[in-house]
Amino acid sequence: MKHIFVIHTGGTISMSEDETTGEVKQGESNPLLHNLLKFNDIMITAKELFYLPSPHITPKEMLELKETIEKACQQDKIDGIVITHGTDTLEETAYFLDLTLNVNIPVVITGAMRSSNELGSDGLYNLVSSIQVAASKEAAEMGVLVVMNDEVHSAKNATKTHTSNVATFQSPQYGPIGIVNKRGVAFHHKPINQTSLAVASLTKQVLLLKAYAGMDETILKAIEELKLDGLVIEALGQGNLPPKMMTSLKKLMSLGVKIVIVSRCFNGIVQDVYAYEGGGKTLKDAGIIFSNGLNGQKARLKLMIALETTQNAGELQEIFSY
User: Fold this and answer.
1) Which of 130, 174, 207, 233 satisfies CB 3.0 to 4.6 Å to 110 for a cystine?
2) Which residues of the chain have pLDDT under 50?
3) Does the annotation mark 12 as catalytic?
């Protein structure tokens, strides 16, 4: 019999809808704690680590979750981990764990778009699917997984694409790596690169900005006073920025700020192609780091973690190349 450890952190999956007002909110306790699922061949143990809406989750909680998982694996014979989480920041927690966990068992994160007492609630179904995946032998080789709506996604690629649809989690450009049904779990893709970054504390200040037409140095000058360690910019197209940003970007780098660019497009990767002022080639030549396909929120976490162990631009570029 396999042992799956379920860690609850809060989110819509643990909330209820007020039948009078229609408001969705937390109750006095997490309803998932009272739904004790039973499987013929799987033993479930559960722990409520947090009871937080996902906008209240910070990297501090992500690090605590990582440490909780590693400690549990050292103390008990556990075959898989399932985490329930709010969907707004689920992809960030999933990717943080994917980058930093040092365990050799499946780790799955799931949530819900409809609260526990709504018509068509998807929470328990997603939880059952996630337990199936966590009990799957093949899942141990896939990194941290996001399981929602009968699909299995890699933490690196999964992102929330719709504000309310139950099929909100997608992997643009790549698609799911597996499916879940009543017969079990079937994987049809496998991530080929697994990044592992050691982290014991989080002390770096990293911001995320989004580029737009006509953007200038105004916001960049303002953040010079913040004593940043890193900055991630969702750039235009293949990795280009308006030219009026360049002087301030170079000033920030001279102050020791490490700058990473990703694209605000949700398909494709940034490349040093265009040689005009603000184009990708001029950014790369100036020392800006190019990320290989991450979205902005995940690149921010990766830079925050990486800066704990290195300040070297070449090493950071290597970390962001996969």
Assistant:
1) 130
2) none
3) yes
